[in-house]
Design a protein that fits this description.
Blueprint (H helix, E strand, L loop, with lengths): L2 E7 L5 H10 L4 E5 L5 H6 L1 H20 L14 H25 L3 E4 L2 E4 L3 E4 L2 E11 L3 E3 L14 E2 L1 H4 L8 E5 L3 H12 L3 E6 L10 H13 L3 E4 L1 E8 L4 E7 L2 E7 L1 E4 L3 E3 L33 E3 L10 H15 L14 E3 L4 E6 L2 H6 L4 E7 L4 H5 L6 E7 L5 E8 L2 H13 L4 H6 L9 H10 L7
Parallel strand pairs: 1-2, 1-6, 2-3, 6-17, 8-15, 9-10, 9-15, 10-11
Antiparallel strand pairs: 4-5, 5-6, 7-16, 12-13, 13-14, 18-19, 19-22, 20-21, 21-22
Helix pairs in contact: 1-8, 3-4, 3-6
The structure holds 1,4-dihydronicotinamide adenine dinucleotide.
The site of 1,4-dihydronicotinamide adenine dinucleotide (NAI) has 25 residues, from helix 6, strand 10 and strand 18.
Length: 464
């Protein structure tokens, strides 16, 4: 049995970042990890999908835009297997990076499954380790199927992102159930690699948590690229065969059959809370199955046991988990960290064009009966977007009429994921829309569209 100040269960972006910060603050720290460091994000999530999305982007650029860009190409062959292998190298590199950071910060990595024991103890294999100050739960989430309609993940015809990331070739056809971030990103990838893609979403529009106008641009772009997009669609039943799956899908008042070589389940994730000794140690769960935490401290119902990342509740995003990790480490070390602003966590879907947002959607502003003004600037009017042949998209800023507060911002653009942070920083520091515009934006950049959207919300747009 070893004793540490802090034991973190789970080495994903929430857990390993928490461990680094705890070690930086002088705490003797251990991380328990049963698989590779970096968790879902690094190994089978954010990082490898970004590598595949970059390949998909290049395929689209070459097949659709090369001629207009003055490049003649022939014999183009998109090989998913090769792209997949590169994505594995990138994931591997990042996981090794996390290993290096553990060593650099003198963090002990305990290999195995961590089971929480009463009294701030953690069992790993036959050994029981004790935390003097705190245990941090960061066990993350996993994919889930829809067993109610016969769609259990069988890893051959019915797959999840876990399997999609290791396919040697793109399937001839794929039906993707769920058009949140996972479903929409894989639709983009497989379409580029030649699969016939059907994207099925239960809610009335794809990317349903995003602003309706953002969803519209992506749905249009996907249809233009030949994908079938079924929103407001219900999968009634599934016939799972050895070589293909047939789904009965009800959409727009009629039922149609969708047959595909593979079905990709992207209808949300389940959190990892089972068989981890939570109940026995006094860690309670919420009605929705997340670990119950005091939102001000992220402490669970068991004193000295904290919880961060996906398992602590939505949004299930790596960057939210990492921030919680830093916050909890500082709290455990006796510091007074800044409170986490959960209404200021950016959301990004890395399809092409990318969708990024912060704060409220226009629909939410309407529901809350806020007095707001929308400012919008289309990329068709932005010089840099035109120069790059990437004019699909817009920037939308929602401004509180009385105080100029940035209520929400929504960007659809080739580099929306990078652009959104201007508005994240602005909101974090309570800058007004007027103050964002005051900052001189370099010309020509896509970011000028942000300044223009701000101006538009004040009735002073310059370039439309
Ligand atoms: P999600 O919850 O974001 O989206 C699932 C979608 O499936 C929803 O739109 C839901 O309405 C739909 N759905 C549920 N049941 C359905 C059914 N029976 N038929 C049709 N549609 C159905 O879950 P997702 O995309 O699997 O992602 C899981 C988590 O991981 C999310 O919290 C997500 O934000 C996060 N993530 C973030 C990424 C990013 O930041 N780019 C990338 C991938 C995942």
């Amino acid at each position: 049995m070893a004793t540490f100040d802090v034991i973190v269960i789970g080495g994903g972006p929430a857990g390993y970042v928490c461990a680094i910060r705890a070690a930086q603050l002088g705490l003797a720290t251990a991380v328990v990890e049963k698989d590779k460091l970096g968790g879902v994000c690094v190994n089978i999530g954010c990082i490898p999908t970004k590598a595949l999305l970059h390949s998909a982007y290049a395929v689209n650029l070459i097949t659709h835009d090369a001629k207009a860009l003055g490049i003649e190409v022939s014999g183009v062959k998109a090989d998913y297997g090769v792209a997949m292998k590169r994505s594995r190298q990138v994931a591997e590199q990042n996981s090794k990076g996390a290993e290096f950071l553990m060593k650099k910060n003198k963090i002990t990595v305990l290999r195995g499954t961590g089971i929480l024991q009463p009294g701030k103890k953690v069992k790993v294999g036959p050994d029981i380790h004790e935390a003097k100050k705190a245990v941090v739960i960061a066990t993350g989430s996993r994919v889930k199927g829809i067993p109610q309609i016969g769609l259990e993940i069988n890893k051959t015809t019915v797959i999840s992102s876990d399997e999609a990331l290791f396919l040697e070739k793109a399937p001839a056809s794929i039906a993707i159930i769920g058009a949140g971030a996972v479903g929409s990103e894989f639709a983009d990838i497989f379409n580029a690699f030649g699969s016939k893609v059907t994207l099925i979403e239960a809610l009335p529009r794809i990317l349903p948590i995003e602003d309706a106008e953002a969803s519209d641009v992506i749905a249009k772009s996907y249809r233009k690229r030949g994908m079938t997009v079924l929103a407001g669609a219900k999968v009634l039943k599934a016939a799972v065969g050895a070589a293909e799956v047939t789904l009965d899908v009800e959409s727009g008042g009629k039922t149609e059959k969708v047959t595909a070589e593979k079905v990709l389940m992207a209808a949300g994730r389940a959190v990892n809370t089972e068989e981890m000794g939570f109940k026995e140690s006094g860690v309670q769960l919420t009605d929705r199955g997340f670990v119950k935490v005091n939102l001000a401290t992220l402490e669970t119902t068991a004193p000295g046991v904290y919880c961060i990342g996906d398992v602590a509740g939505p949004p299930m995003l790596a960057h939210k988990g990492s921030r919680e990790g830093v916050f909890v480490a500082e709290l455990i070390a006796g510091h007074k960290p800044h409170a986490i602003k959960y209404d200021n966590v950016p959301s990004v879907t890395y399809c092409h064009p990318e969708v990024a947002s912060i704060g409220l959607t226009e629909e939410q502003c309407k529901e809350k009966k806020l007095d707001y003004q929308v400012g919008k600037f289309p990329l068709t009017a932005n010089g840099r977007a035109r120069a790059s042949l990437e004019t699909d998209g817009f920037v939308k800023v929602i401004r509180d009429k009385k105080y100029g507060e940035i209520l929400g911002a929504h960007i659809v653009a080739s580099h929306a994921s990078e652009m959104i942070h201007e508005l994240v920083v602005a909101r974090e520091n309570e800058y007004t829309v007027e103050e964002v515009d005051l900052a001189i934006h370099a010309h020509p950049t896509l970011s000028e569209a942000i300044a223009e959207a701000c101006l538009d919300s004040m009735g002073r747009v310059l370039h439309t």
